[in-house]
Amino acid sequence: MKSKINLSATAKIHAKVLERKSQNLPVYDFSIGEPDLPIHPLIEGFVSAKLKQEKALYPALAGFSQLRAAAAKWMNQFYSCDYDIAEALIVSGAKFGLYLLLQRLVQAGDEVIIPVPYWVSYVDMTKLNDATPVLVETKENNWKLTPELFLQNITKKTKIVLINNPGNPSSSVYSKFELEKILRIAYENNILVIADEVYSGLMYQDQNFVSCGAFPQYKKNVLVLQSCSKNFAMTGWRVGFIFGDEDLLASLIPAISQTTSGVPAICQWAALAALENAQVIMESVKIAMKQRRDILINQLRKLSINAVSPSAGLYLFLPLSQFTDEKNSEKFCLNYLDTRGIAMIPGSAFGKEGFVRLSFGSENSTLSKIELEKPSV
Ligand code: PLP
After folding, report:
1. Tens digit of each residue's pLDDT (9 = 90 or more) over 258-290
2. Using a 6 Å cutoff on CB, does residue 94 contact ligand 1?
3. d(CA 244, CA 213)
4. Whose CA is nearest to atom 5 of ligand 1?
5. Which pLDDT does position 375 carry in this prediction?
6. d(Cα 371, Cα 377) in Å, to the nearest integer?
7. So what's the pLDDT on residue 353?
8. In a mutational test of the pocket of ligand 1, which residue from 198, 234, 235 has the highest number of ligand atoms less than 8 Å from its CB?
């Protein structure tokens, strides 16, 4: 039977990375979007103690109430929101959170507005739920959706707009002013906003992050996706959050009960330790990623590749023309990995041909030892 979704270019690169590793060939992995850091000692200590005291039985489907309360408090304290415990749902990563929302909210014929470049899963997940992705070129307007572009793409079928802030792969950040306009248009047109804010803690300048959940007048209309993955360097624990309308969140619980049965207890304890020590842990992840960003940019300069230093996020999104005359980003990335052992993600995976994405989440050693050379492809 034909599948509705495709194997992403990300998955193809990853498979090649694994193949090279199994053959003991060198790999400099700039493909994977994760802060590669050891688990923070405060998390490790808390989880070890819990394991001695408690059994890890089936968890509450919506998440432990202590963790839901801590998650709401974190959003309120860090991002000026006003969520209570019933407005916070614990899910198996933001990715599954997005899946749950789309599965619940859209049906065949509905349109989901997705600014380009987009995170790889948005389009396939929309299709998986039989809805139609409406891709909006941001015309290199700092890779952000403008009110004009948003209005131009609204139809009677528009159900959802997806806002990724800070962006993957763009690392662009929306201002309060920009968000207010988008949220107002969404509200006036009865469109739900799903705000994917999983990189909110990785802000490297003085600018504050503004959450879509921090606008009381539009609160009913907004669903915020959050996660421990990037902000707390906990990708493998698979703990994410949805913040939003209490009744809508409650209506997602049957799907959790018929699929994952909730997030594993041990992972929820780890998330609790993370949130209760958010200031310290988020700061340590941010400092490490900022340092890695600077190392990668310096390495690229040696190659005469000029990258503007992103003010947020985990990625450089660079024109392919800085590396090669080849026009096909997937072909280039596969070839570059074969010949140099350097893994990057082609822009085509994010809906933007002619670009490549480099993550600076890798260990310092990968970033600084790499010998970049102008390829001959
Ligand atoms: N949203 C964006 C924009 C991402 O880049 C990612 C992971 O790369 C996710 C969501 C998934 O987050 P999680 O690990 O919590 O599923």
Report:
1. 999 999 999 999 999 999 999 999 999 999 999
2. yes
3. 8
4. 168
5. 47
6. 17
7. 96
8. 198
Instruction: List beta partners, residue 242.
Output: 89, 225
376 pLDDT exceeds 50? no
From the number of C-beta atoms within 10 Å of its C-beta (0-12, 13-18, 19+), residue 23 rates as exposed
| Contact 168 CB / ligand 1 (< 6 Å) | yes
- Percent of residues in the chain assigned helix, strand, coil, to nearest 5: 45, 15, 40
Decide: 333 and 13 in contact? Cβ < 8 Å.
yes
Classify residue 81 by burial, with Cβ atoms within 10 Å: 0-12, 13-18, 19+.
Answer: buried
- Atom of ligand 1 at shortest range from CA of 235: 14
Ligand 1 centroid – CA 303 distance (Å)? 30
| Ligand 1 pocket member 169 (CB < 6 A) | no
**What is the pLDDT confidence band of residue 10, given thresholds at 50, 70 and 90?**
confident
Confirm or reject: Cβ of 198 under 6 Å from ligand 1.
Answer: yes
